[in-house]
Amino acid sequence: MKIGNNIKLFISKKNYPDAELARRIGRDPAYLTRLCNNEEANPTAKIMFTIAKELGVSIEKIWFVDEACKKSKKMEKK
User: Residue 19 contacts by C-beta under 8 Å, 6 or more apart in sequence?
Assistant: First the structure.
């Protein structure tokens, strides 16, 4: 599971500027870039909840969207 990929997905869906999201979560843009590139290994729960809130999605979607997409694609193939 790569939460950075999920965060990038929701950022692009919302057309949210990275710098604005970084500002709103109280982090510098470099941190958000590292997080989105899966280079930041242990984001805090507080940061993850704040990101989810700012993107208008549940924390579960950020943590588990890859798994849901995989299951959905498997179902389509059957």
Answer: 29
Phi-psi sector, 67: left (phi>0), alpha (psi -120 to 50), beta: alpha
CA separation for the pair 64, 78 (Å, rounded): 22
pTM: 0.76
Measured CA to CA, the distance from residue 9 to residue 53 in angstroms comes to 15
One pLDDT digit (tens) per residue for the chain, 78 residues = 588 989 999 999 988 898 999 999 999 999 999 999 999 878 899 999 999 999 999 999 888 866 545 544 554 555
Closest by alpha carbon to 66, among 13, 1, 9?
A: 1
- Amino acid identity at 3: I
